[in-house]
Amino acid sequence: MGQQIMIDPVTRIEGHAKITIQLDDSGQVNGARLHVVEFRGFEKFCEGRPLWEMPGITARICGICPVSHLLASAKTGDAIMAVGIPPAADKLRRLMNLAQITQSHALSFFHLSSPDLIFGMESDAAKRNVFGLIEADPALARAGIRLRQFGQEVIELLGGRKLHPAWPVPGGVRSPLTDEGRSWIGERLPEAFQTVRLAIDLLKRLSVGFARETEVYGNFPTLFMGLVTPDGRWEHYDGHIRFVDSAGAIVADKLNAAHYREYIGEAVEPWTYLKFPYYKPLGYPAGIYRVGPLARLNVCSHVGTPLADAELAELRQMGGRIATSSFLYHYARLVEIVAALEATQILIDDPDVLSTRCRASAGINSLHGVGCSEAPRGTLFHDYHVDEYGMVEKMNLVIATGQNNLAMNRTIEQIARSYISGPAIPEGVLNRIEHGIRCYDPCLSCSTHAAGRMPMMVQLVGPDGGLLDEVRRG
Amino acid sequence: MTPCDGASGGPGAPRASGTCVVIGYGNELRSDDGAGPWVARAVAALALPGVLATDAHQLVPEMAEMLSDARLAVFVDATVTPEPTDVAARRVEPHADPAGASHFGDPGALLWITRQVYGRCPEAWLVTIPARNLDLGESLTPGVRALCDTAVSVVARLVACP
After folding, report:
1. B15 CA to chain A: closest CA distance, Å?
2. C-alpha to C-alpha distance for A124 and B7, rounded to whole angstroms
3. Which end of chain A is more exposed for a tag (fewer CB within 10 A), N or C?
């Protein structure tokens, strides 16, 4: 039996996890696992509650991406009511999702990942954080803060709150955008475009120094899954499901999200609360697939707006038509912010977003419904069974982060094998392994419905199980 | 963050220039951890001139802009103490907090960010309310509810100081 290294908890991610790395007797990496160790069980305690409460309750799963749950839950309610929502409601929900994508991606890039990119993966851990970034480049930090603030304030404009806005409801939304709100968004958009331009230019300059990271941070063939429009463009709220493989072949297309159980299986392992979704026709674990910004940009033909398409072309030049390196999730996030801002501009120029006809009324017309939308981290499914009074009898949530679980485990193993040789492991190398997880910007609060803070502990355990070394930070 | 009185750093709202900013924060699904937001709403209901009160789930860097224009900041939070104690107020100084280097932080870290990014930060106080029950729940325990009234008075005195 070899040695085991433990990183517990993983830092600068949303939620609570630890990593173990198994070494063989010669000190070579034998395997690596991401363990998600907390559990809150929303699926269970939503049983017996009214359908109408589900958007509000499921949004409490997470303080980072509540909007994603609100939208998926409201769409599930639409399906159970068997209604088509008014065009204005569709556009307003889209506007909120775009704001959510913008603020979440800005958080991931500026607050969580850019310190590693700017200072280096193995730089001084005391400086390699958002405080170090603020000290080194206050203007960049301020721009990042304001970009995230922009997304949050659009959410607040629409929903009345930045967090948990009780605004998307089964049948539509509670209220339209105000004329004043539309003007405010229009006034702030130019600054948001400037900031993401700044971030893209920065990332491109820094990417030159990260060729090896691009090669070994989750660079392997898998399937990719995401929503696309009927004509195959980038989609974030509706449309149909498409799978592509790493060679660019469309493996499955025009799949109905409501029938996800026909093509997505969910495996479990005894060492983690995070489920392992897989593409059913290929089985487990061969059916590994990735979701999220990189997957969405891989599965689509193009975005459909000029600035985002120009950036997508550069991403594909860098990573290939199908970018297989998870390190490129960072770039994909910035491309998606551009796409989100362009789509926001189009929507606020549409008079429908001011329409007061934004909610359909109906009762329970179906005892089962599935709602699907693209959360910042990937495709999100809500699946409810209700009784004739609309009380939830059974619920299943398929979360983006869970769908990247197989890939995250493969990523940390690939990085560990690339950088670890022998039991002496510098802190910076452990940070590389953590960064492999950060590429996916996982939200473990969502995926297991757990929450926690992220100090870090690393334990080196000998073949006999004895503790050889322990490092704590945070 | 949600404005309690319709005024915040948010869209179309007045800036916090020269005002006192009161931020009550905590998780309102964790019983007494919701004391901070409760106090913020109570302060907002007093409609004190020049006072901008907001409730929030947690402190985030985006609050720095609002704080940068403020004359005084008062943070209100629940605290865990080994024995039941009273409401307390203490000055807060800016400090970097790499341990909390994510989307959350403590008041000192937020002040540090404000000063670094915007060039200044206000004088600040932290008012703490001892929590007794942090289990899942949306209501304050009676004792903590009474302490919240005390905390509102403490905040009112702090913001009344010139």
Report:
1. 14
2. 41
3. N
